[in-house]
Amino acid sequence: MAPATKKLDLAALTSSTRTVKVRFNGAVINVTYHLSHLNKEFYERVRERDDDQNPKYSRHEYLADIIERWDITNDGEPVDVTKELLEELPEAFVQALDVAIFEDATPKALMR
Question: Do the domain assignments include residue 79?
Answer without folding.
Answer: yes
